[in-house]
Design a protein that fits this description.
Layout lengths: L1 E5 L4 H11 L6 E2 L10 E8 L4 E7 L4 E5 L11 H13 L17 H10 L4 H12 L3 H20 L4 E8 L1 E2 L11 E2 H4 L3 H21 L3 E9 L7 H14 L7 E5 L8 H9 L4 E3 L7 H6 L6 H14 L3 E8 L6 H14 L3 E6 L18 H13 L3 E6 L10 E5 L6 H8 L4 E4 L4 E5 L5 E5 L4 H6 L1 H16 L2
Parallel strand pairs: 1-2, 1-3, 6-9, 6-16, 7-8, 9-10, 10-11, 11-12, 12-13
Antiparallel strand pairs: 3-4, 4-5, 13-15, 14-15, 17-18
């Protein structure tokens, strides 16, 4: 849909709202000076009687206006909410049903809740604000308030010297058809794994010096991917030895290794992980439907997941997370619910239910209607909750199926600290490996980012760039 802005240049709130409400359409800004054409909407900010008025109108002649508070100027950051609110109410009557997240477009609903609580609101008042000011449904309000309270609790416990580490392994046994992450199929790029590990160990050593010189206390380590368990037994052992050799782990509370695909996991790798201090792993089916697994390019079966899970329980005392994805192509409501029931029957410590984030313009092809319904995801949440799991973090993504969300559930006491700190951006996270983005969070909410080379070959061939990033991080931590 083409959109026009008059009297303001607040592109982001209008564009993001259009993407949320009409994810299957292309959206482009037009120039009012060139005239209006086709199916379009207009967002205008104009003077009213003693206050500004946010007005939205469309090519059909429909109009909705919202009065802004007296004294609010066009430059006020809060004006985003008023121009978005006018547009939301203009478009709402043309939707089949109200979106469950109302006019919220951000990826971190819990952050909004945390900000409301920080202003002195009670959880009940924050809930009312979500419903009355942002039109969020009751169920999503409860979800956001719960996650917001958890993140606020974590934030209150973070010390000034705390830091969490992410170590990226950007290789997979095969690339899933729905994946938009930077990951490399080892069938084509397997020759790069060993030089990548060598480069990574060099960065581990350098990061150890930086954190040691600045007195940082590592609270969690998360080895993610890609598929970190793609590493050979020797490579995994060397990586874990490097972590123990170069980092002070005396303050470590949590150590996670994503072992997502059963075809990459062996009993010996699990023993190496446990001996290396790993206490939490992920074994990710994504779905228990065999046809869907094959359709998205997964190389394992549902039985492989069950066998791998049982092997992990026998080998070590791990907390185990299992990921599922709602909205996979070829899946449907009945199959999704069946996958959830099969996974919770295994009794993992954590279950994460993602709603698939489509590539821009890609059809969903989920179920008979091609739409992932909120009612279906709600039923999945109910099943997970009935087995003793409680939601503790959530986030949304652009083009996410059904306009819904990703939710992490945990048995009480098994929540993943790293997930909360990273997703809610409430603490410092140092990232190692290609594509790593270190984030330093300042008291005023400002976030400083330090990036590594994006692709493995650039990372392997660019040790000087890694040294530059480490030097930049050292200076930043000395003043942070």
């Amino acid at each position: 849909m083409r959109f026009y802005l008059i009297g303001h240049e607040r592109i982001n709130p209008i564009l993001q709202l259009l993407i949320c409400l009409y994810p299957d359409e292309e959206h482009a800004q037009g120039d009012p000076a060139e005239g209006f054409e086709g199916e379009y909407v207009i967002s205008e900010l104009r003077a009213g009687e003693g206050h500004l008025v946010a007005e939205a109108r469309d090519y059909r002649g429909n109009v909705h206006t919202v009065d802004c508070p007296a004294g609010m100027t066009a430059e006020d950051p809060a004006m985003n909410e008023y121009v978005r609110r006018a547009m939301y109410h203009l478009l709402l009557p043309m939707l089949e049903e109200p979106p469950v997240w109302g006019m919220l477009t951000g990826v971190k609903p819990a952050k909004l809740v945390r900000n409301l609580l920080a202003r002195g609101m009670t959880p009940a008042e924050a809930s009312e604000s979500l419903r009355a000011d942002y039109y969020v449904s009751d169920k999503r309000t409860r979800l956001a308030v719960r996650a917001g309270a958890v993140s606020q609790d974590y934030k209150n416990k973070i010390g000034t010297k705390d830091i969490d580490l992410y170590i990226g392994i950007p290789f997979c046994p095969a690339k899933c058809s729905y994946c938009s992450f930077v990951s490399n199929d080892v069938r084509s790029w397997g020759h790069m794994v060993e030089p990548y590990v060598q480069a990574l160990l060099r960065e581990v050593e350098g990061m150890g010096r930086v954190l040691g010189q600045t007195g940082r206390e590592i609270r969690s380590i998360y080895i993610g991917g890609g598929t970190p368990s793609i590493l050979s037994e020797d490579q995994l052992a060397r990586l874990l030895d490097g972590i123990h050799g170069h980092f002070d782990l005396s303050h470590l509370e949590e150590f996670t290794l994503e072992a997502g695909r059963p075809e990459t996991i062996t009993a010996e790798k699990l023993r190496i992980a446990q001996q290396g201090g790993v206490g939490r792993i992920s074994i990710n089916p994504q779905t228990m439907n065999e046809e869907v697994l094959r359709g998205v390019g997964r190389l394992h079966s549902a039985q492989d997941i069950i066998d791998c899970y049982r092997m992990a329980r026998e080998v070590g005392d791990f907390q185990i997370n299992m990921d599922l994805i709602a909205g996979l192509p070829g899946d449907d409501d009945h199959s999704l619910i069946s996958s959830v029931e099969q996974v919770v029957a295994l009794d993992p410590d954590n279950v994460t239910l993602h709603c698939m984030a489509r590539k821009r313009g890609a059809p969903l092809r989920f179920g008979k209607t091609g739409t992932l319904a909120a009612e279906t995801v709600d039923r999945c949440h109910e099943i997970i909750g009935s087995h003793g799991y409680v939601p503790y973090y959530l986030y949304r993504q652009k083009y996410i199926a059904g306009g819904l969300e990703n939710v992490g559930f945990a048995k009480p006491g098994t929540e993943c600290r790293y997930n909360v700190v990273m997703m809610e951006e409430i603490g410092d996270v140092a990232a190692l490996g290609s594509g790593g983005v270190t984030k330093l969070v300042y008291p005023d909410g400002h976030i400083e980012r330090i990036t590594n080379p994006k692709y493995p070959i650039e990372y392997i061939q660019g040790p000087e760039k890694i040294d530059q990033s480490l030097s930049k991080l050292l200076k930043a931590l000395e003043n942070h």
